[in-house]
Amino acid sequence: MSAEAANPGAPLRKRGRARIDLRRLGRVALLGPASRDRLPDAIGHVADAHRAHYPDADLAILRKAYVLAESSHRGQMRKSGEPYITHPLAVTLILAELGAETTTLTASLLHDTVEDTEVTLDQVRREFGDEVCYLVDGVTKLEKVDYGAAAEPETFRKMLVATGNDVRVMSIKLADRLHNMRTLGVMRPEKQVRIAKVTEDVLIPLAERLGVQALKTELEDLVFAILHPVEYESTRALITAWEGAQDPLTEIADGVRSTLREAGISADVLIRPRHFVSVHRVRAKRGEMRGTDFGRLLVLVGEDADCYAVLGELHTCFTPVISEFKDFIAAPKFNLYQSLHTAVVGLEGAVAEVLIRTHRMHKVAEAGVVALGNPYTQDGTGAAHQAEPADGERADPTRPGWLSRLLDWQEAATDSDQFWTTLRADLAQDREITVFRTDGGTLGLPAGASCVDAAYAQYGEEAHGCIGARVNGRLATLSTVLNDGDTVQLLMAQDGSSGPSPEWLDHVRTPGARIAITGWLDTHPDGAQGPRKSPAAPRPQAQPADDAANGKGKAADRDPSVLVDRPGAPVRLAGCCTPVPPDAIVGFTVRGGAVTVHRDECPAVARMRALGRPAVGARWNDPGEWSRSADYRVTLVAESFGRPRLLADLTEAIAAADAAIVAATVEPPSEQRVRHTYTLQLPDAAGLPGLMRAMRDVPGVYDVSRAQQPAAAG
Fold first, then answer.
1. What CA–CA distance (Å, rounded) separates 365 from 382?
2. Per residue in 292-325, pLDDT tens?
3. Deepest of 59, 110, 639, 681, by most Cβ within 10 A of its Cβ?
4. Residue range 640-660: average pLDDT?
């Protein structure tokens, strides 16, 4: 595929925007830098674009960066045949057109020097300062000779960590990938596909999350042409055929201009053609395309209040399609995007989608974080003041919620393959919700997140001890999916002995929660046992060697209440059936040589016997030692009829029996019946029958039984 064929965005490119001429720049670059008293001709495009956003910008540092880049890359050629310096020039022009400030453009000119030439980071730091050095280092790839197959994922990890401190790192990377995609036609087809796939899975979602729509839409079209050539050609033919026809949006746009002019509202009304992927999606959704489906109207005004004034006029003078209305001004998207979306019906039933925003909103919608420049600059030298709201408050874009979560979980993903797979899965979640904590804070979570995700987002690894939740004031299971605007209160165990259930993995959406749960389960293969220490008699710290060997005592990792026919082996009580004296018990050897003891009637016992696993004889220690040797954990299921205060009465009955609640689950009512599952810590196994009787005596409870399967403890 030629470089031109790999550029599907060309037909929809804005009129009057000249693309950088690589051949001309190549000839200029080969002539070397200009004299010291003027700007090199090769960066004239960059200077013009930069001055359009920053009329008073000092271009001396750009000249200095170009001289170093041109001299260090001299003699290097791209696969397309142009001098290599044309690539950093093109990347810098992309950023300059988006409104990037001078520091970003300086780093962009130098972004490949450390990677591909003899220039060092120390040299960049000495000549251009710490900021430029940080940005260049952030986008510099790791060497394959050092990292092998892990070089690509670890390079992205390095860039993301750097982006956590300065989003301009990713801005440069996105512009770099866009220019490489524009000229990808010189690569082998299989390499085109590989690069396009990584762009689709990682770079495009990052561009979306950083709000850089101008880069995201062109990257989408370029990837579309490579990965889906048949659909791309069909869409190209459809757009080409439409371009020769009369555009019904023109007439509607004239009507909108007239309406706003009569209302005294100053506004620019533009027609924005859809890009290729957008047209393809609309056709897939609607089947037959209408003339107004190939573009949308964009109304630009001066102030926020004018947006709503425009909306009022349009809904008064045209027939609105109410289902299409969305207010992203009052509730901005998580990527800084703000606009009013609506649709109106024109003459002959033509429906036109309309976007209404201020000029400042439009700049941020197109360029995202690039338009904000350096968020730490408050003296006017950067672009931060450009995006500052009238009330003086400015959202810091360097740590949006999704980026903070990503940076947290990547630390736990030490394996490169796990990081790469999890990153792609995380970025595929393209919508975010906000839930409120009862202490007044908020949590940003991906759509579809559950109470488990909220627990790990709020408490980190302490969420292992979460035993329940209240959503909007009502008790809910931890598997409950949260909605935007919900209030969630997480209920935590007090004794620190609880651990996550394997079932939690079935309803987590955030990588951080999944990695934390998986890590805990890997280190606790037999479930949460927790400390087994009696308040009356602490567990001894050591036993005579002969006692440990004959099974009468205990080693530090053995349960003191159980004796097994495998002297010296660690002994654990199974979390699935929580045996307590005087249950009939049997043991099975598990990974690491430990013996896990189950109730004889536990379903896990039948499964292991069916698999031919040999049983290990197990018996309870002297009954006189039960209350002195350990606390006991048991899982009970209470079946009841629903009524007010039922949960409070049950927990009061449990507390009166001196039992501690380790985990609890209340299933949604079914036919007015409710099932409660409690994992409890008992100070004395002999008290279990009395506890079960006390729970049965609670009004509304008609049965209390021992659990026969893993407790769904959240």
1. 19
2. 888 999 999 999 999 999 999 999 999 898 888 9
3. 110
4. 82
Average pLDDT over residues 533-539: 32
CB neighbours of residue 438 within 10 Å: 11
Q: How far apart are CA 301 and CA 307, in angstroms?
A: 7
pLDDT tier, 551 (very low <50, low <70, confident <90, very high otherwise): very low
pLDDT band at 89 (very low <50, low <70, confident <90, very high): very high
pLDDT for 713: 38
Q: Which amino acid is at 427?
A: L
Distance between CA 280 and CA 262 in Å, rounded?
Answer: 37
Q: Is the pTM of this model over 0.85?
A: no
DSSP sequence for 250-281 = HHHHHHHHHHHHHTT---EEEEEE--HHHHHH
Contacts of 538 (CB under 8 A, 6+ apart): none
**Rounded distance between C-alpha atoms, residue 285 and residue 288, angstroms:** 9
Q: Rounded to an integer, what is the distance from CA 122 to the centroid of its chain?
A: 34
Give the C-alpha distances (Å, rounded to integers) separating 165 from 58, 107, 232, 518.
Answer: 25, 16, 38, 28
Return the top range by mean pLDDT from 353-367, 400-414, 613-627. Answer: 353-367
DSSP, residue by residue, 540-594:
PS---HHHHHHTSS--TTS-TTEEESSTT--EEE-TTT---TTS-EEEEE-TTS-
pLDDT of residue 231: 92
Residue 112 contacts residue 89 (beta carbons within 8 Å): no
CA distance 582 to 637: 19
The total of other beta-carbon atoms located within 10 Å of residue 330's CB is 9
What is the spatial distance between Cα 616 and Cα 313, in angstroms, rounded to a whole number?
81
What residues form DSSP beta bridges with 269? 299
* Tokens of residue 235, six digits: 């869409």
Residue 480 to residue 21: CA distance in whole angstroms:
56
Residue with tokens 């698999």: 611
| Catalytic residue ranges | 115-116
3 state DSSP class of 169: helix
DSSP strand pairing (340-345 vs 351-358): antiparallel
Q: Does the pLDDT at position 193 exceed 90?
A: yes
Q: Please give the single-letter amino acid code of residue 106.
A: T
Using the CB atoms, write b or e for 594-632: b if 16+ within 10 Å.
bbbbbbeebebbeebeeeeeeebebebbeeeebbebbbb
Residues 418, 307: Cα–Cα separation, whole Å: 45
Distances in whole angstroms, Cα of residue 366 to Cα of each of 60, 216, 325, 327: 28, 9, 21, 18
SS3 495: coil
Reading the block at residue 132, the tokens are: 């430029």
Phi, psi of 276 (to 5 degrees): -60, -50
Pairing of strands 632-641, 673-682: antiparallel
Cα separation of 303 and 307, whole Å? Answer: 7
Among 161-165, 239-243, 708-712, whose mean pLDDT is lowest? 708-712
